[in-house]
Automatic annotation (TrEMBL):
It comes from the Bacteria. Residues 57-91 form the HTH cro/C1-type domain. It comes from Enterocloster alcoholdehydrogenati. PROSITE patterns: HTH_CROC1. This is HTH cro/C1-type domain-containing protein. Transmembrane segments: none annotated. It holds the Pfam family HTH_19. InterPro entries: Cro/C1-type_HTH, Lambda_DNA-bd_dom_sf.
Amino acid sequence: MSKKNYQEQVQNSPYAKNAREIGQRLYSLRREKNLSAGELVAQIESIQRDGDKQVKLSKTQYSRFENGTAFMNSEIMLALCDFYHIPADFLLYGKETLDYNVRYLTKNKETLIVAFESLAKYLRNIQ
């Protein structure tokens, strides 16, 4: 399939709006970490090399996900969820499930600290 045909397929898909919303969440998550798209991809690749998982992701491909002009496969989605420490529910729908958060947070001390820092940041913003 040509690039033009793929772009038309994405734009005409009933899920085009969802792709744009997912892209906005990806963009926000990346900006929270103060990373460029290239830095993010490099970090994901370095994590992938250390583990058993091997997911191919390019800067251009990631940018297309953020722009909502491409759909990602489940492997990439799971790698991004692992990298950002978020459940797929959040990436897909903008919602988090409490069960996932509790199980994930209790895995290690670092993630618990990040969660409390995020909660404190959120609470400061709602005042």
